[in-house]
Design a protein that fits this description.
Elements lengths: L1 H15 L4 H9 L5 H8 L6 E3 L22 E8 L2 E8 L10 H17 L3 E5 L10 H17 L5 E5 L2 E3 L4 H4 L3 E5 L4 E3 L3 H8 L5 H5 L1 H6 L6 E3 L2 H12 L40 H8 L6 E3 L7 E8 L2 E8 L10 H16 L4 E7 L6 H5 L2 H14 L4 E10 L1 H5 L9 E4 L4 E3 L3 H15 L3 H16 L3 H5 L5 E2 L5 H12 L17
Parallel strand pairs: 3-4, 4-5, 5-7, 6-8, 7-9, 12-13, 13-14, 14-15, 14-16, 15-17
Antiparallel strand pairs: 1-2, 2-3, 10-11, 11-12
Helix pairs in contact: 4-5, 12-14, 16-17
Protein backbone atom coordinates (compact mmCIF):
# COMPACT_ATOMS: atom_id res chain seq x y z
CA UNK A 1 0.00 0.00 0.00
CA UNK A 2 2.84 2.38 0.83
CA UNK A 3 4.19 2.08 -2.73
CA UNK A 4 0.81 3.03 -4.15
CA UNK A 5 0.55 6.04 -1.83
CA UNK A 6 4.07 7.11 -2.76
CA UNK A 7 3.20 6.94 -6.45
CA UNK A 8 0.00 8.94 -5.93
CA UNK A 9 1.80 11.62 -3.94
CA UNK A 10 4.50 11.85 -6.58
CA UNK A 11 1.94 12.36 -9.34
CA UNK A 12 0.14 15.02 -7.32
CA UNK A 13 3.43 16.80 -6.78
CA UNK A 14 4.16 16.67 -10.50
CA UNK A 15 0.69 18.06 -11.29
CA UNK A 16 1.11 21.12 -9.08
CA UNK A 17 4.48 21.94 -10.66
CA UNK A 18 2.85 22.85 -13.96
CA UNK A 19 5.37 23.25 -16.76
CA UNK A 20 8.33 23.23 -14.38
CA UNK A 21 10.36 25.81 -12.40
CA UNK A 22 11.81 27.56 -15.47
CA UNK A 23 8.40 28.24 -16.97
CA UNK A 24 6.97 29.30 -13.63
CA UNK A 25 9.83 31.78 -13.25
CA UNK A 26 9.18 33.13 -16.77
CA UNK A 27 5.52 33.66 -15.82
CA UNK A 28 6.57 35.61 -12.74
CA UNK A 29 9.00 37.72 -14.74
CA UNK A 30 6.08 38.84 -16.92
CA UNK A 31 4.36 40.08 -13.77
CA UNK A 32 1.82 37.25 -13.83
CA UNK A 33 0.83 34.57 -11.38
CA UNK A 34 0.53 30.89 -12.21
CA UNK A 35 -2.86 29.20 -12.46
CA UNK A 36 -2.60 27.65 -9.00
CA UNK A 37 -1.35 30.87 -7.42
CA UNK A 38 -4.36 32.68 -8.83
CA UNK A 39 -6.77 30.08 -7.48
CA UNK A 40 -5.11 30.22 -4.05
CA UNK A 41 -5.92 33.95 -3.85
CA UNK A 42 -9.42 33.61 -5.33
CA UNK A 43 -10.71 30.77 -3.17
CA UNK A 44 -11.17 30.44 0.57
CA UNK A 45 -8.19 28.68 2.13
CA UNK A 46 -8.48 24.91 2.05
CA UNK A 47 -11.75 24.92 0.06
CA UNK A 48 -10.45 23.86 -3.38
CA UNK A 49 -11.43 20.39 -4.54
CA UNK A 50 -9.58 19.64 -7.78
CA UNK A 51 -10.89 17.42 -10.56
CA UNK A 52 -8.85 16.01 -13.43
CA UNK A 53 -5.41 16.75 -12.02
CA UNK A 54 -3.96 13.57 -13.55
CA UNK A 55 -5.50 13.88 -17.03
CA UNK A 56 -3.06 13.95 -19.97
CA UNK A 57 -3.44 14.19 -23.74
CA UNK A 58 -3.00 11.08 -25.87
CA UNK A 59 -1.54 12.78 -28.96
CA UNK A 60 1.73 11.37 -30.30
CA UNK A 61 2.02 13.51 -33.46
CA UNK A 62 4.43 16.40 -34.06
CA UNK A 63 6.66 15.57 -31.10
CA UNK A 64 3.84 15.59 -28.55
CA UNK A 65 4.55 12.07 -27.25
CA UNK A 66 7.25 13.43 -24.93
CA UNK A 67 5.27 16.52 -23.89
CA UNK A 68 2.52 15.03 -21.76
CA UNK A 69 1.95 17.09 -18.62
CA UNK A 70 -0.43 16.08 -15.83
CA UNK A 71 -3.52 18.26 -15.94
CA UNK A 72 -2.81 19.17 -19.59
CA UNK A 73 -2.64 22.91 -19.00
CA UNK A 74 -5.81 23.63 -17.06
CA UNK A 75 -6.70 23.37 -13.38
CA UNK A 76 -10.39 22.63 -12.72
CA UNK A 77 -12.48 22.08 -9.62
CA UNK A 78 -14.79 23.49 -6.98
CA UNK A 79 -14.18 25.81 -4.07
CA UNK A 80 -15.67 28.60 -2.02
CA UNK A 81 -15.46 32.39 -2.16
CA UNK A 82 -16.45 34.00 1.12
CA UNK A 83 -18.25 30.80 1.97
CA UNK A 84 -20.14 30.55 -1.34
CA UNK A 85 -19.69 27.52 -3.55
CA UNK A 86 -18.23 28.18 -7.01
CA UNK A 87 -16.88 26.19 -9.94
CA UNK A 88 -13.52 27.42 -11.26
CA UNK A 89 -11.02 26.65 -13.97
CA UNK A 90 -7.65 28.28 -14.58
CA UNK A 91 -5.59 27.76 -17.71
CA UNK A 92 -1.90 27.18 -17.01
CA UNK A 93 0.32 29.08 -19.44
CA UNK A 94 3.40 27.27 -18.09
CA UNK A 95 2.13 24.04 -19.70
CA UNK A 96 2.41 24.19 -23.50
CA UNK A 97 1.46 27.87 -23.42
CA UNK A 98 -1.93 26.92 -22.00
CA UNK A 99 -2.86 25.72 -25.51
CA UNK A 100 -6.43 24.49 -25.69
CA UNK A 101 -6.83 20.77 -26.21
CA UNK A 102 -9.44 18.06 -26.26
CA UNK A 103 -8.51 17.11 -22.70
CA UNK A 104 -8.87 20.72 -21.56
CA UNK A 105 -12.31 20.82 -23.13
CA UNK A 106 -13.35 17.59 -21.44
CA UNK A 107 -12.28 18.91 -18.06
CA UNK A 108 -13.95 22.30 -18.46
CA UNK A 109 -17.13 20.83 -19.96
CA UNK A 110 -17.48 18.45 -17.05
CA UNK A 111 -17.07 21.39 -14.69
CA UNK A 112 -19.66 23.45 -16.60
CA UNK A 113 -22.17 20.61 -16.44
CA UNK A 114 -21.71 20.15 -12.70
CA UNK A 115 -21.96 23.93 -12.10
CA UNK A 116 -25.32 24.16 -13.88
CA UNK A 117 -26.64 21.08 -12.12
CA UNK A 118 -25.52 22.40 -8.72
CA UNK A 119 -26.69 25.95 -9.46
CA UNK A 120 -23.39 27.65 -8.64
CA UNK A 121 -21.40 30.42 -10.39
CA UNK A 122 -18.74 29.48 -12.94
CA UNK A 123 -15.48 31.45 -13.01
CA UNK A 124 -12.89 30.99 -15.75
CA UNK A 125 -9.31 32.29 -15.61
CA UNK A 126 -8.12 32.45 -19.22
CA UNK A 127 -4.42 32.39 -20.10
CA UNK A 128 -3.86 30.48 -23.32
CA UNK A 129 -2.01 30.87 -26.59
CA UNK A 130 -4.99 29.42 -28.47
CA UNK A 131 -5.95 26.07 -29.94
CA UNK A 132 -3.38 23.29 -29.82
CA UNK A 133 -2.41 23.06 -33.48
CA UNK A 134 -1.03 19.54 -33.10
CA UNK A 135 -4.55 18.24 -32.42
CA UNK A 136 -6.07 19.64 -35.59
CA UNK A 137 -9.84 19.65 -35.80
CA UNK A 138 -10.12 18.00 -32.38
CA UNK A 139 -9.20 21.24 -30.68
CA UNK A 140 -11.71 23.17 -32.79
CA UNK A 141 -14.49 20.73 -31.91
CA UNK A 142 -13.40 21.06 -28.29
CA UNK A 143 -14.06 24.81 -28.43
CA UNK A 144 -17.54 24.15 -29.74
CA UNK A 145 -18.33 21.98 -26.72
CA UNK A 146 -17.38 24.84 -24.41
CA UNK A 147 -19.39 27.43 -26.34
CA UNK A 148 -22.52 25.27 -26.31
CA UNK A 149 -22.32 24.96 -22.54
CA UNK A 150 -21.68 28.70 -22.12
CA UNK A 151 -24.98 29.30 -23.89
CA UNK A 152 -26.77 26.60 -21.89
CA UNK A 153 -25.56 28.13 -18.62
CA UNK A 154 -26.39 31.69 -19.72
CA UNK A 155 -29.09 33.16 -17.51
CA UNK A 156 -28.97 30.09 -15.23
CA UNK A 157 -25.76 30.62 -13.25
CA UNK A 158 -23.45 33.66 -13.25
CA UNK A 159 -20.43 33.26 -15.52
CA UNK A 160 -17.36 35.45 -15.00
CA UNK A 161 -14.29 35.41 -17.28
CA UNK A 162 -10.91 36.76 -16.23
CA UNK A 163 -8.52 37.36 -19.13
CA UNK A 164 -5.10 37.11 -17.50
CA UNK A 165 -2.92 36.54 -20.56
CA UNK A 166 -3.44 35.88 -24.27
CA UNK A 167 -6.87 34.82 -25.51
CA UNK A 168 -6.83 34.43 -29.26
CA UNK A 169 -8.73 32.88 -32.12
CA UNK A 170 -11.78 30.81 -31.27
CA UNK A 171 -10.94 31.07 -27.56
CA UNK A 172 -12.37 34.60 -27.43
CA UNK A 173 -15.92 33.42 -27.98
CA UNK A 174 -16.23 31.65 -24.66
CA UNK A 175 -15.58 34.83 -22.59
CA UNK A 176 -17.79 36.80 -24.98
CA UNK A 177 -20.65 34.45 -24.12
CA UNK A 178 -20.27 34.95 -20.37
CA UNK A 179 -21.80 37.64 -18.16
CA UNK A 180 -18.70 39.62 -17.20
CA UNK A 181 -15.22 39.91 -18.72
CA UNK A 182 -12.31 41.29 -16.66
CA UNK A 183 -9.01 42.12 -18.37
CA UNK A 184 -5.57 42.90 -16.96
CA UNK A 185 -3.91 45.96 -18.49
CA UNK A 186 -0.65 45.27 -20.28
CA UNK A 187 -0.66 41.48 -19.97
CA UNK A 188 -4.02 40.35 -21.37
CA UNK A 189 -5.07 40.42 -25.02
CA UNK A 190 -8.13 39.28 -26.97
CA UNK A 191 -8.38 39.07 -30.74
CA UNK A 192 -9.65 36.71 -33.43
CA UNK A 193 -6.58 37.14 -35.62
CA UNK A 194 -3.22 38.28 -34.31
CA UNK A 195 -1.07 41.22 -35.45
CA UNK A 196 1.12 39.04 -37.69
CA UNK A 197 -1.81 37.63 -39.64
CA UNK A 198 -3.43 41.05 -39.99
CA UNK A 199 -0.22 42.52 -41.38
CA UNK A 200 0.14 39.61 -43.81
CA UNK A 201 -3.44 39.83 -45.06
CA UNK A 202 -4.17 43.56 -44.97
CA UNK A 203 -0.76 45.18 -44.65
CA UNK A 204 -1.79 46.93 -41.43
CA UNK A 205 0.88 47.07 -38.74
CA UNK A 206 -0.52 46.92 -35.20
CA UNK A 207 0.72 45.75 -31.82
CA UNK A 208 -1.07 43.16 -29.71
CA UNK A 209 -1.88 45.85 -27.15
CA UNK A 210 -3.36 48.23 -29.72
CA UNK A 211 -5.28 45.43 -31.38
CA UNK A 212 -6.77 43.65 -28.40
CA UNK A 213 -5.51 45.08 -25.14
CA UNK A 214 -7.62 45.82 -22.07
CA UNK A 215 -8.13 49.46 -23.01
CA UNK A 216 -9.33 48.58 -26.52
CA UNK A 217 -11.98 46.15 -25.32
CA UNK A 218 -13.09 48.29 -22.38
CA UNK A 219 -13.41 51.57 -24.27
CA UNK A 220 -13.92 50.81 -27.97
CA UNK A 221 -15.30 47.34 -28.63
CA UNK A 222 -17.26 46.88 -25.41
CA UNK A 223 -16.25 43.21 -25.25
CA UNK A 224 -14.78 43.59 -21.76
CA UNK A 225 -16.49 45.19 -18.76
CA UNK A 226 -13.59 45.88 -16.38
CA UNK A 227 -9.89 46.71 -16.69
CA UNK A 228 -7.48 46.27 -13.78
CA UNK A 229 -3.74 46.64 -13.29
CA UNK A 230 -2.73 43.20 -12.01
CA UNK A 231 -3.76 39.60 -11.52
CA UNK A 232 -4.38 40.33 -7.85
CA UNK A 233 -6.70 43.24 -8.64
CA UNK A 234 -8.67 41.08 -11.08
CA UNK A 235 -9.24 38.49 -8.36
CA UNK A 236 -10.27 41.06 -5.75
CA UNK A 237 -12.72 42.59 -8.25
CA UNK A 238 -14.17 39.14 -8.99
CA UNK A 239 -14.91 38.60 -5.31
CA UNK A 240 -16.58 42.01 -5.07
CA UNK A 241 -18.62 41.45 -8.22
CA UNK A 242 -19.81 38.04 -7.06
CA UNK A 243 -21.24 39.59 -3.88
CA UNK A 244 -23.92 41.39 -5.95
CA UNK A 245 -25.01 38.22 -7.74
CA UNK A 246 -27.13 35.25 -6.63
CA UNK A 247 -25.94 31.67 -6.87
CA UNK A 248 -28.35 31.05 -9.74
CA UNK A 249 -31.49 32.35 -11.42
CA UNK A 250 -33.83 30.75 -8.88
CA UNK A 251 -32.42 32.82 -6.02
CA UNK A 252 -32.20 36.50 -5.14
CA UNK A 253 -28.88 38.19 -4.40
CA UNK A 254 -28.00 37.91 -0.72
CA UNK A 255 -28.56 41.26 1.03
CA UNK A 256 -26.01 42.77 3.37
CA UNK A 257 -26.88 43.90 6.85
CA UNK A 258 -27.85 47.58 6.31
CA UNK A 259 -25.00 49.91 7.24
CA UNK A 260 -26.25 53.21 5.79
CA UNK A 261 -29.20 55.25 7.06
CA UNK A 262 -32.26 54.40 4.95
CA UNK A 263 -33.84 57.79 5.74
CA UNK A 264 -30.76 59.81 4.88
CA UNK A 265 -31.62 63.11 3.17
CA UNK A 266 -29.03 64.61 0.83
CA UNK A 267 -29.44 68.38 0.59
CA UNK A 268 -26.79 68.54 -2.12
CA UNK A 269 -29.18 66.82 -4.53
CA UNK A 270 -31.55 69.79 -4.39
CA UNK A 271 -28.98 71.99 -6.13
CA UNK A 272 -27.00 69.50 -8.23
CA UNK A 273 -28.94 70.13 -11.48
CA UNK A 274 -27.94 73.48 -13.03
CA UNK A 275 -30.66 76.08 -13.56
CA UNK A 276 -29.51 76.39 -17.18
CA UNK A 277 -30.96 73.34 -18.92
CA UNK A 278 -28.00 73.20 -21.33
CA UNK A 279 -25.32 72.96 -18.65
CA UNK A 280 -23.97 69.50 -17.76
CA UNK A 281 -23.39 67.92 -14.37
CA UNK A 282 -21.90 64.60 -13.30
CA UNK A 283 -24.56 61.90 -12.81
CA UNK A 284 -22.03 59.88 -10.83
CA UNK A 285 -22.37 62.41 -8.02
CA UNK A 286 -26.12 61.79 -7.94
CA UNK A 287 -25.63 58.04 -7.77
CA UNK A 288 -23.03 58.23 -5.02
CA UNK A 289 -25.42 60.27 -2.86
CA UNK A 290 -28.45 58.05 -3.45
CA UNK A 291 -27.10 54.52 -3.05
CA UNK A 292 -25.49 52.96 0.01
CA UNK A 293 -22.11 54.47 0.82
CA UNK A 294 -19.33 53.20 -1.49
CA UNK A 295 -21.59 50.53 -2.97
CA UNK A 296 -21.63 51.61 -6.63
CA UNK A 297 -19.68 49.27 -8.90
CA UNK A 298 -19.74 50.60 -12.45
CA UNK A 299 -19.88 48.10 -15.30
CA UNK A 300 -18.37 49.08 -18.68
CA UNK A 301 -17.43 52.49 -17.30
CA UNK A 302 -15.19 53.39 -20.27
CA UNK A 303 -17.48 52.14 -23.05
CA UNK A 304 -20.25 54.48 -24.26
CA UNK A 305 -19.66 56.92 -21.38
CA UNK A 306 -22.86 58.84 -22.22
CA UNK A 307 -24.63 56.02 -20.37
CA UNK A 308 -23.82 54.61 -16.94
CA UNK A 309 -24.54 51.05 -15.86
CA UNK A 310 -23.56 49.30 -12.67
CA UNK A 311 -24.41 47.42 -9.53
CA UNK A 312 -25.13 49.09 -6.21
CA UNK A 313 -27.03 48.61 -2.96
CA UNK A 314 -30.09 50.22 -1.42
CA UNK A 315 -30.42 49.52 2.29
CA UNK A 316 -28.19 46.49 1.81
CA UNK A 317 -30.09 45.03 -1.17
CA UNK A 318 -28.37 44.62 -4.54
CA UNK A 319 -29.81 46.65 -7.43
CA UNK A 320 -28.80 47.38 -11.00
CA UNK A 321 -28.50 51.01 -12.04
CA UNK A 322 -28.91 52.58 -15.46
CA UNK A 323 -28.38 56.30 -15.96
CA UNK A 324 -27.70 58.89 -18.61
CA UNK A 325 -24.51 60.89 -18.17
CA UNK A 326 -25.12 64.58 -19.05
CA UNK A 327 -21.39 65.25 -18.71
CA UNK A 328 -20.76 63.28 -21.92
CA UNK A 329 -22.63 64.03 -25.16
CA UNK A 330 -25.41 65.49 -22.99
CA UNK A 331 -26.42 61.93 -22.10
CA UNK A 332 -27.84 61.10 -25.54
CA UNK A 333 -28.61 57.56 -26.60
CA UNK A 334 -26.62 56.20 -29.53
CA UNK A 335 -25.68 52.82 -30.95
CA UNK A 336 -23.08 51.90 -28.32
CA UNK A 337 -25.01 53.19 -25.31
CA UNK A 338 -28.12 51.34 -26.51
CA UNK A 339 -26.17 48.08 -26.66
CA UNK A 340 -24.63 48.76 -23.27
CA UNK A 341 -27.95 49.49 -21.55
CA UNK A 342 -29.89 46.66 -23.20
CA UNK A 343 -27.32 44.03 -22.32
CA UNK A 344 -27.12 45.18 -18.72
CA UNK A 345 -30.90 45.25 -18.28
CA UNK A 346 -31.14 41.68 -19.56
CA UNK A 347 -28.34 40.57 -17.25
CA UNK A 348 -30.09 42.05 -14.20
CA UNK A 349 -33.36 40.47 -15.23
CA UNK A 350 -31.66 37.08 -15.61
CA UNK A 351 -30.46 37.13 -12.01
CA UNK A 352 -33.36 38.79 -10.19
CA UNK A 353 -31.62 42.12 -9.62
CA UNK A 354 -34.09 45.07 -9.44
CA UNK A 355 -33.44 47.95 -11.83
CA UNK A 356 -33.25 51.64 -10.94
CA UNK A 357 -33.06 54.06 -13.90
CA UNK A 358 -32.04 57.73 -13.69
CA UNK A 359 -33.16 59.64 -16.77
CA UNK A 360 -31.63 62.80 -18.20
CA UNK A 361 -31.65 62.27 -21.95
CA UNK A 362 -32.33 64.73 -24.79
CA UNK A 363 -33.09 61.86 -27.18
CA UNK A 364 -31.23 59.71 -29.69
CA UNK A 365 -28.07 61.02 -31.32
CA UNK A 366 -28.89 62.39 -34.80
CA UNK A 367 -26.55 61.80 -37.70
CA UNK A 368 -26.06 60.02 -40.99
CA UNK A 369 -23.47 57.66 -39.54
CA UNK A 370 -25.82 56.61 -36.74
CA UNK A 371 -28.66 55.95 -39.16
CA UNK A 372 -26.46 54.01 -41.57
CA UNK A 373 -25.14 51.81 -38.78
CA UNK A 374 -28.58 50.95 -37.49
CA UNK A 375 -29.40 53.22 -34.56
CA UNK A 376 -33.04 52.20 -35.04
CA UNK A 377 -32.21 48.53 -34.56
CA UNK A 378 -29.82 49.18 -31.68
CA UNK A 379 -32.19 51.62 -29.99
CA UNK A 380 -34.95 49.03 -30.17
CA UNK A 381 -32.82 46.76 -27.98
CA UNK A 382 -33.46 49.04 -24.98
CA UNK A 383 -37.20 48.89 -25.55
CA UNK A 384 -37.12 45.12 -25.90
CA UNK A 385 -34.95 44.62 -22.81
CA UNK A 386 -37.04 46.83 -20.50
CA UNK A 387 -40.31 45.44 -21.82
CA UNK A 388 -39.21 41.86 -21.32
CA UNK A 389 -37.67 42.40 -17.88
CA UNK A 390 -39.84 41.07 -15.05
CA UNK A 391 -37.73 42.30 -12.13
CA UNK A 392 -38.86 45.37 -10.14
CA UNK A 393 -38.27 48.50 -12.21
CA UNK A 394 -38.02 51.95 -10.64
CA UNK A 395 -37.28 55.20 -12.46
CA UNK A 396 -36.27 58.73 -11.49
CA UNK A 397 -36.55 61.43 -14.15
CA UNK A 398 -33.91 63.92 -13.13
CA UNK A 399 -34.10 66.39 -16.00
CA UNK A 400 -34.63 65.72 -19.71
CA UNK A 401 -36.81 62.86 -20.92
CA UNK A 402 -37.33 63.86 -24.53
CA UNK A 403 -38.95 61.93 -27.37
CA UNK A 404 -38.27 58.24 -27.79
CA UNK A 405 -35.75 58.24 -24.96
CA UNK A 406 -38.57 58.92 -22.49
CA UNK A 407 -40.46 55.87 -23.71
CA UNK A 408 -37.42 53.58 -23.94
CA UNK A 409 -35.88 54.31 -20.55
CA UNK A 410 -38.14 52.45 -18.13
CA UNK A 411 -41.36 54.36 -18.80
CA UNK A 412 -44.77 53.13 -17.65
CA UNK A 413 -45.29 51.70 -21.11
CA UNK A 414 -42.15 49.56 -20.72
CA UNK A 415 -43.57 47.94 -17.58
CA UNK A 416 -42.11 50.33 -15.03
CA UNK A 417 -43.47 49.76 -11.52
CA UNK A 418 -42.94 53.15 -9.89
CA UNK A 419 -41.77 56.38 -11.56
CA UNK A 420 -40.56 59.43 -9.65
CA UNK A 421 -39.60 62.81 -11.08
CA UNK A 422 -37.63 65.72 -9.72
CA UNK A 423 -39.09 69.24 -10.09
CA UNK A 424 -36.39 69.83 -12.73
CA UNK A 425 -37.82 67.09 -14.98
CA UNK A 426 -38.62 68.00 -18.59
CA UNK A 427 -40.89 65.48 -20.31
CA UNK A 428 -41.81 66.32 -23.89
CA UNK A 429 -41.93 65.01 -27.43
CA UNK A 430 -39.07 67.32 -28.39
CA UNK A 431 -37.08 70.26 -27.11
CA UNK A 432 -38.45 73.79 -27.17
CA UNK A 433 -36.33 74.92 -30.13
CA UNK A 434 -37.33 71.91 -32.21
CA UNK A 435 -40.99 72.47 -31.38
CA UNK A 436 -40.71 76.09 -32.44
CA UNK A 437 -39.25 75.16 -35.82
CA UNK A 438 -42.08 72.71 -36.34
CA UNK A 439 -45.05 74.54 -34.83
CA UNK A 440 -44.31 78.21 -34.31
CA UNK A 441 -41.86 79.50 -36.90
CA UNK A 442 -44.37 80.40 -39.61
CA UNK A 443 -46.64 82.25 -37.18
CA UNK A 444 -43.67 84.09 -35.68
CA UNK A 445 -42.41 85.19 -39.09
CA UNK A 446 -45.84 86.58 -39.90
CA UNK A 447 -46.07 88.52 -36.64
CA UNK A 448 -45.05 92.19 -36.25
CA UNK A 449 -42.20 91.16 -33.90
CA UNK A 450 -40.82 87.74 -34.91
CA UNK A 451 -38.22 87.70 -32.12
CA UNK A 452 -40.82 88.42 -29.45
CA UNK A 453 -43.17 85.83 -30.93
CA UNK A 454 -40.42 83.23 -30.82
CA UNK A 455 -39.57 84.10 -27.21
CA UNK A 456 -43.23 83.86 -26.23
CA UNK A 457 -43.61 80.48 -27.93
CA UNK A 458 -40.52 79.08 -26.20
CA UNK A 459 -41.66 80.38 -22.80
CA UNK A 460 -45.13 78.91 -23.24
CA UNK A 461 -43.76 75.56 -24.39
CA UNK A 462 -41.31 75.32 -21.49
CA UNK A 463 -43.98 76.30 -18.98
CA UNK A 464 -46.32 73.59 -20.20
CA UNK A 465 -43.96 70.71 -20.94
CA UNK A 466 -40.63 71.40 -19.28
CA UNK A 467 -41.87 70.40 -15.86
CA UNK A 468 -43.11 67.06 -14.50
CA UNK A 469 -46.59 68.17 -13.47
CA UNK A 470 -48.32 67.63 -16.79
CA UNK A 471 -47.00 64.05 -16.84
CA UNK A 472 -48.10 63.60 -13.21
CA UNK A 473 -51.57 64.89 -14.11
CA UNK A 474 -51.82 62.14 -16.72
CA UNK A 475 -50.53 59.43 -14.40
CA UNK A 476 -47.27 58.88 -16.26
CA UNK A 477 -45.36 59.94 -13.13
CA UNK A 478 -46.34 58.48 -9.76
CA UNK A 479 -44.88 61.25 -7.63
CA UNK A 480 -42.88 64.45 -7.97
CA UNK A 481 -40.34 64.40 -5.16
CA UNK A 482 -37.68 66.64 -3.68
CA UNK A 483 -34.31 65.45 -4.94
CA UNK A 484 -33.00 65.12 -1.38
CA UNK A 485 -35.70 62.48 -0.71
CA UNK A 486 -34.64 60.21 -3.56
CA UNK A 487 -32.84 57.62 -1.47
CA UNK A 488 -35.60 57.02 1.06
CA UNK A 489 -38.29 57.05 -1.64
CA UNK A 490 -36.47 54.39 -3.66
CA UNK A 491 -35.86 52.22 -0.61
CA UNK A 492 -39.54 52.33 0.38
CA UNK A 493 -40.67 51.67 -3.17
CA UNK A 494 -38.32 48.72 -3.47
CA UNK A 495 -39.72 47.24 -0.25
CA UNK A 496 -43.13 47.12 -1.90
CA UNK A 497 -42.25 45.82 -5.37
CA UNK A 498 -39.36 43.52 -4.47
CA UNK A 499 -41.68 40.52 -4.20
CA UNK A 500 -43.73 41.18 -7.33
CA UNK A 501 -44.57 38.21 -9.53
CA UNK A 502 -44.93 38.63 -13.27
CA UNK A 503 -45.35 36.01 -15.97
CA UNK A 504 -45.40 36.39 -19.73
CA UNK A 505 -47.16 34.69 -22.58
CA UNK A 506 -46.04 31.11 -23.24
CA UNK A 507 -43.61 31.06 -26.16
CA UNK A 508 -40.25 29.67 -27.12
CA UNK A 509 -38.59 33.09 -27.28
CA UNK A 510 -39.05 36.45 -28.93
CA UNK A 511 -36.90 37.94 -31.68
CA UNK A 512 -34.43 40.26 -29.97
CA UNK A 513 -33.35 43.03 -32.40
CA UNK A 514 -29.70 41.94 -32.61
Amino acid sequence: MSDHLTQLRLKRQQAVQGGGPARVEAQHQRGQLTARERLAILLDEGSFQELGALARHQNTDFGMADRRFLGDGVVTGFGKINGRRVAVYAQDFTVLGGSFSQVQSQKICRLQDRAVEAGIPLIGLNDSGGARVQEGIQSLAAYGEIFYRNVTASGVVPQISLIMGPCAGGAVYSPALTDFVIMVTGTSHMFLTGPEIIQTVTGEAVTAEDLGGAWVHNSRSGVAHFAVESDQEAIVLTKRLLAYLPQNNSQDPTPLTPYDDADRLEEALNTIVPSDENLPYDMRQVLSLVFDLDSVLEVSSDFAPNALTGLARLDGHAVGLVANQPAHLSGVLDIDSSDKIARFVRLCDSFNIPLVTFVDCPGYLPGVDQEYHGVIRHGAKIIYAYSQATVPKLAVIVRKAIGGSYVALSSKQMGNDIAFAWPTAQIAVMGAEGAFRLLGRKAAQASPDPAEAERQFLDDYREKFFNPYHAADLGQIDEVIEPRETRLRLIRALEVVRTKVQTGLPKKHGLFPV
